[in-house]
Amino acid sequence: ESPLQALIFDSHYDSYRGVVVLIRVVNGSINKDNKIKFMGENLTSEVEEVGIFGPDMIEKEMLTAGEVGYIITGIKEVGSIMVGDTITDLKNPAEKSLPGYKKPKPMVYSGLFSIEGGDYENLRDALGKLSLNDSSLDFVPEVSVALGFGFRCGFLGLLHMEIVRERLEREYGSKILISTPNVAYKITKSDNSVIEVKRSSDFPSQEKMLKIEEPYVEATIITPKDYIGDVMKLANQKRGNFKDMQYISPERVEIKYAMPLSEIIVDFFNLLKSITSGFASLDYE
């Protein structure tokens, strides 16, 4: 029988039992009392319960290859479980993880602060539980002179940031303030060391910097042909590099630019809608 390989595709937190991990068994089998290893996080634990959904949680003796179900290990630390990780047997481990697991790299950073000063611990717990089924959410503590204690959070983009804010407010009742989003810069210092800076206040002095690099995206703009000139003027003002332009119909044009992500996340979309009377659309990757 092949060594156990099970893919984590979701998880949630139970206040009595800890993290409930949802898995699909790809190879091998998993039983109650098995000692297992989370290969991506290099964490070991013991299985307290295995089961399936029907739709309620139904306990079973084991899950075998091809089955989808859940395991409970008693793990309480919500940051220990990552969606996309591979579970294997500790005594007979698989040689490698299932393909596709890679920690998502945040692209946009913003500060999250509780409106009520005493709500810091609740916000931390809410972010931790939210990260159980959103492995792309990254957060570390941060202190602001004006706003107090909060968290510097990393998101995949502006839409991801809005979804996290909405879920924090709706699912956990958190009332939060979000600071202006920004991106991470890679700085090569005069001693040739490389650092990543996520806040303007962390930039080294000018004489200590040799090079600054910032993330770029490929932006695709679809607009009526009457607005081509205004759209290209706006993109050039935002430091965009023209790549391509194609007519997708007699009246509509697709324009591609390479643009700094920092220029897009502030007000580019609103300006684009304004100069095209709301007709243009924007996508980027």
From TrEMBL:
CDD domains given in the database record: EF4_II (cd03699), EF4_III (cd16260), lepA_C (cd03709)
Keyword Hydrolase (UniProt): yes
GO terms for MF: GTP binding; hydrolase activity; ribosome binding
Elongation factor EFG domain mapped to chain residues: 212-285
Keyword terms: GTP-binding, Hydrolase, Nucleotide-binding
Domain Translation elongation factor EFTu-like: 18-88
Gene Ontology biological process: positive regulation of translation
SUPFAM superfamilies found in the cross-reference section: EF-G C-terminal domain-like, Translation proteins
Keyword Manganese assigned: no
Signal peptide per UniProt: none
PANTHER family reported in the protein's UniProt record: TRANSLATION FACTOR GUF1 HOMOLOG, CHLOROPLASTIC (PTHR43512:SF4), TRANSLATION FACTOR GUF1-RELATED (PTHR43512)
Family statement drawn from the similarity comment of this UniProt entry: Belongs to the TRAFAC class translation factor GTPase superfamily. Classic translation factor GTPase family. LepA subfamily.
Entry protein name: Elongation factor EFG domain-containing protein
